[in-house]
Amino acid sequence: MTQLILFTKIENETCILLAQRINPNKDFYLKLNGPGGKAIHEKNENIDVCIIRECFEEAEIVLRNKKLLKIFEETCYSTKEWRAEPCLQKEAKYIVTLAIYLHPLEEPPKHTEPHILGPWNLYKIKDLLKHRNELVPILRENIELIDGKIKAYEQDILDLPINAQKLEEIKIKMEKQPQRTQETFNFLNDIELEIPEEEIPEIVDEQFPVLALNFGKLSSYKIQTLIKYKKKIQESIRPLRRIEHKIQTIEKSYKGFKYLSIFDKIERKIIAQKFGENPTIAELSKDNTILHKFRDTIFEFEIHKSSTNKLTYLKLRLSKDQTQINGTTNGKQTWEFFHKNYSKLPLI
Question: Could you give the CA distance from residue 178 to residue 190 in angstroms, rounded to a whole number?
């Protein structure tokens, strides 16, 4: 497994090119790394060829062999195929080789893998030394080595011709991009930093809990990422809001109603199985047992209507006062009355 350090100087500050790992299903989620990856061992690809291939695939930068310098290589036993987790030989399932390379940054990178990596940005070495926990393990553990090797990079290698105009283009291009080093580690200083929305990567749902748990340490870049995520969520739930509103309207109209409440609790299931959950008076009247049960019963009632004034359902409750109705009903009537006038309305 390989990592490449593409370095340059901006205003006498040594900077290296890194991108954030944004796939929550991959190792080292939200950590920073350089170009690099896994050698294709099925094709007997060596690590030198691997780093050249990975750099082109991830950033479309072509490396020059004469300037490519390997500064670190370590082989260890591991329990996992693509992670260096040192263990005893008898516990090992894999042998993993890690390598770090240096190469001057000579052309602007391209963002070729937005599904797994955030945009490429320059980070100051001095800031990374203070905040190494933002890096993937191989870089975190070797950041001092990287700093020293960049300073000691052989003069004869650096003396090889470099296109000065290209370097100036890199400087201009990278300075136009938000400096993640300042943003990530000096949050209060860059709170006003605004990045065009189209340049902010979209996060997936699985990333949100990670960001939410670290709300006290979020950079303005991550906050803007969350704001973009919020807008996406709002767009997706707008149709659901309308459905929710309709359901709430129905729920409100039914609030306080009891399912087939004129029957005993034991009877309700039997009635529902036989006549459905909202039977009509006409349907219930076909059962002589029900007719006999409610023949002399007095009910309190309400007739509900739709917005177009159409009768929709009949609400019946057993009246606490079962004395005979004489004259004014005051919202009370008998089964015979409902059968005669509202026999086809669903009962609730």
Answer: 10
**CATH class belonging to 2-169:** alpha beta
Given this model, what pLDDT does residue 187 score?
A: 36
DSSP notation for 198-244: GGSPPPPTTHHHHHHHTGGG--HHHHHHHHHHHHHHHHHHHHHHHHH
Residue 4: CB atoms within 10 Å: 27
Higher model confidence: residue 266 or residue 141? 141
223-279 pLDDT per residue, tens: 777 788 788 887 888 888 788 877 876 665 554 445 678 888 788 878 888 887 778
Secondary structure of residue 70 in the 3-state scheme: strand
Contact 205, 25 (CB under 8 A): no
Distance between CA atoms of residues 60 and 17, nearest Å: 13
Report d(CA 66, CA 290) in Å as an integer: 97
Opening angle at CA 105, ends 101 and 108, nearest 5: 130
Measured CA to CA, the distance from residue 335 to residue 202 in angstroms comes to 63
- The amino acid sitting at 200 is I
Amino acid 40: pLDDT:
81
Sign of CA dihedral 118, 214, 233, 240: positive
Tell me, rounded to whole angstroms, the distance of Cα 207 from its chain centroid: 4
